[in-house]
Amino acid sequence: MFFNTQLFATGTPPTGYNKISDPNALYGFCTPNGSALGSKTGHLTFLGESLVDVLAITVLECGPFSGGAPEKITCPENSPYAYCTNTGNDGLGNNVTLGVLKFDAKTDPNGVYTDCPSGAQLKSKLSLIVSEKRWIKGIVTLACESSHVGSKTKPERVTCPDGTNPYDFCVSTANDGFGNAVTIGVVKAKDAGDPYGMYGQCHTNISSFGIKPGFMSKASLVTSVGRSMETVRSIDIIVCNQPGGIGSWLPDNLVTGSCSEIPAGIIPGVNRYNYCIWGTDKKGNGLIAGVNQ
Question: Among 164, 40, 158, which residue's Cα sits nearest to residue 96?
């Protein structure tokens, strides 16, 4: 991020940080000439909350410090957050209120629409995404009602709800093909290593190799081999192919261990990762992933 140094010199610091819902992004500069930048995740750990499954942390409000340590507060009405926090004095000159979005039934991209009319035939929220699905990590149903349009309409991007929210963009369809008019809010992975970004369909010709269609969170790789997401900072998909395309050494299930256990030459920069996961997943994708803690 580039600062406007002229504004900074006049005591009006940039506050673009506070518009970024990436959990690892900084926040602050909420008091001109008297505040600094801090970590949003620090407020969660102070409260004893785990960082596992945290998709986004949104700055709902930020102003001059008053007083008070981090505490949970009631979230705004109809918000998607699992919980919200306020810290009256963060020790950096800020009074900050945060909304914490987590991976759960409400945000799971593969989950069906919620709050629809009784008896509605529901589809996966991810089915409304027509662009690259690997960059999606969370989807929230914003509205679902019976369609007044006779035939299926293509999902299109629309303006997201007014006010502060964690969505990178919103999508709506007047008829999803099953009689539902649906609007969703979408949270994107922040980079290629985002542990809650999705992966799947690892070959362009999946039908020829028995790969099942669909996408899954990269975090599921870690939990599927019995490891914890508690300290995971990033997950890189290094190779994703039909299993035979990686080599006959690839196991027919997922395993984990030191990246040095993988045949030489397959992993560039093997020392970059704390450990690797490799094998064939439950949808038939052959893959290698590197995990950093």
Answer: 40
